[in-house]
Design goal:
By secondary structure, this protein is α/β, with parallel strands linked by helices. It has helices spanning 13-23, 59-72, 86-98, 112-120, 132-145, 157-173, 188-200, 216-223, 247-256, 265-279, 285-297, 315-321, and strands at 32-34, 43-48, 78-82, 101-106, 124-127, 149-151, 179-183, 205-211, 259-263, 303-308. It is globular and about 55 Å long.
Length: 323
Amino acid sequence: MKFGIENFGEITREKIEAALELIRPDIPPTRCEIVPDFSPLGEVWAKWENENPTGAFKVRGGLVYFDWLKSAHPEIKTIVTATRGNHGQSVAFAARKAGIHARIIVPSGNSISKNEAMKQLGADLIEHGRDFSDALDFARAEAAADPACHFVPSFDWKLVLGVSTYGYELFETVPDLDVVFVPIGLGSGICGTIAARNALGCQAKIVGVVAEEAPTYADSFAAGRIVEGQKIPRTIADGVACRVPHPDAFEVIREHVDRILVIPEPAIEATVRRVLRKTGQRIEGAAALSFAALSGWMQPNQKAAVIVSGGNIDDEIFDRVAR
């Protein structure tokens, strides 16, 4: 389809539907279903993005991005990107399909299972820096030093277009939702959810959710301007361990998101356990944020949805918190 998306306003219903057609050979629709008895206040729907081939929603964006890259820059044979894991798995998956070599930068101490998954998808892995922001700076420098190497950003409107396909599936299934809870990492997931809602003309409020140890988007939303985090995020919700908001994502969030909720670490861990016991699903910390937000924030008689962003959690962490 060769999508060249330059801004949020270009993500239309027609383009989302074309993106769905593009990804469908690799990405069947993920389950969207009621989770019985999860909240006494109302109906809770879950969009199980942990069931994608890479275990997370981001692969949808990777496939759309690399479709564009192969068309716009057929000379590119190597890419570099930075990640905490799910974006990297998406890039490695899509790069392998496109026949492009992937070099992926992760921060020191990154998720063991996510690192291994990226390697198994054929990527070369390099550890650098204290957190995602350090890894991102290093990846940009690597690309700048090698004209033959293309830098794949972690936030780009082509990625958002691909990601918006899960929101399209959600709102087609449940068009009368009152509220959708979405974890915020760098912002592609929540921006894609907003784009899908707008494209289908639905009225659901979009509520962002972050970890207390990675509050930069919540702080920025409250201040009405970007507020960079002053400490390295330390959270089991590594998929949202962002210290520096992306300005394009922040502008969309500031305009279209109803509120951003902050979840403390004990509640994230408790929610991983509760979801396992209630549903049998193994979810990662970032995905637990959406479920955790229901407690105390869902209103009586609401029809709510949670975005289960991924299931890529290290065995060691899962075994500890799932007891």
